[in-house]
Amino acid sequence: MLNRELLERMRRGGGLIQMGRGEHLVEEDLMALIDEGHLAGASFDVLRQEPLPADHPYWQHPKLRITPHVASGATPHAVAAQLVQSVQELRDGQPLSFEVDPGTGY
After folding, report:
1. 21 is catalytic
2. At residue 85, does pLDDT exceed 80?
3. Fewer beta carbons within 10 Å, N or C terminal of the chain?
4. Catalytic site residue 56?
5. Measured on CA atoms in the order 8, 62, 81, 47, is the torsion positive or negative?
6. Which of 71, 66, 26 lies closest to 48, judged by CA?
7. Domain spans of the chain?
8. Choices 3.40.50.720, 3.40.50.300, 3.40.50.1970, 3.20.20.210: CATH for 4-71+100-104
9. Residues of the signal sequence (predicted)?
10. pTM for the complete prediction?
11. Strand ranges across the sheet with 41-44
């Protein structure tokens, strides 16, 4: 569904936030449009392959962000509580409880 033809309709310099199904996105088409400069980048909550291997190039790509595949299971209250906790941990110089660890696949 989310292929080159559709993604090219996005405004030049835009970015994609992918929170649907991994198989909905033609990742090769998206990456080509990013590499060509049509799109500025993308954020993934879901990918075709999960967990993404630790050595997958997406982890190191400067125009990609990967978040844990938990978007549909979080209530606004839970997200707000995690955000407050993260801000407090950052402020206090503590380790982040919700830090993403690519070594574990997320």
Report:
1. yes
2. yes
3. N
4. no
5. positive
6. 26
7. 4-71+100-104
8. 3.40.50.720
9. none
10. 0.63
11. 15-18, 41-44, 64-66
Residue 84 has φ and ψ, to the nearest 5°, of -60, -45
CB 64 within 8 A of CB 58: yes
Q: Which of 4, 11, 12, 21 is catalytic?
A: 21
In terms of DSSP bridges, do strands 41-44 and 15-18 run parallel, antiparallel, or are they unpaired? parallel
Q: Is 97 helix (H, G, I), strand (E, B) or coil?
A: coil
Q: Is the pLDDT of residue 24 over 70?
A: yes
Q: Looking at the chain, how many residues does it have? A: 106
pLDDT bucket at 19, cuts 50 / 70 / 90: confident
Residues 48, 20: contact at Cβ < 8 Å?
no
